[in-house]
Amino acid sequence: MKFLFEAQGTIRSNMWKAVQALSEEQLFRIPDGYNNNLAWNLAHVVATPQILCYKLGNQGFLLPQSFIDAHKKDTSPRDWKQPVDLKEVKEYFDFTLHQCQIDYEAGKFSTFTPYTTSAGVELKSIEDALIYNYGHENLHYGVILAMRKLV
Question: Which residues have C-beta within 8 Å of that of residue 87, sequence separation ≥ 6?
Fold first, then answer.
């Protein structure tokens, strides 16, 4: 699993590099044909493992519930009362991945509530959730690469 956390760290770093030269206006623009923007994708990447790992692993969230609620699946920045703070998201990117690895290695996810994702994948363990989440983050990295060309 060490490799998985290292690879995920690389993908997260690549996501930030992909958007660092963009303006705030570009990060918050919703391109035609999309439901979300680059800022939402970045925030969504840190909100999702809170549900897949921490909630299903019967642990408390590392992030505020309001942040998770605003960026979980089936949400949109069109519903935001205020834009997400990208400095906060960057802190979450680094902190949550590191803390998840610490919590995993400490055995904090020893009980896990099985869950079938919207893609039909059954997660039966924390390892399943971590691997699925890695794929999920790669999917959003691809979305970010495509979306940045449109803003």
Answer: none
Confidence of residue 121 (pLDDT cuts 50, 70, 90): very high
Which amino acid is residue 41, in one-letter code?
N
- Expressed as residue numbers, the domain containing 99 is 2-148
- Taking the CA of residue 55 as centre, how many other CA atoms within 13 Å lie in the half-sphere pointing to its CB? 14
pTM for this predicted structure: 0.94
Looking at the structure of the chain, the number of domains it has is 1
Helices 2-19 and 126-148: angle between axes, nearest 10 degrees: 20
* Beta-carbon contacts of residue 92 (< 8 Å; ≥ 6 apart): 43, 46, 63, 67
Joined together, the tokens standing for residue 112 give 């896990």
The stretches of the chain forming alpha helices (DSSP H) are 2-19, 24-28, 38-49, 65-71, 86-105, 126-148
Task: Say yes or no to pLDDT of 35 above 90.
Answer: yes
Q: In 3-state terms, what secondary structure has residue 115?
A: strand
Model confidence at 81, pLDDT cuts 50, 70, 90, reads confident
Mean per-residue pLDDT for 58-69? 96
Q: What is the CATH number for 96?
A: 1.20.120.450
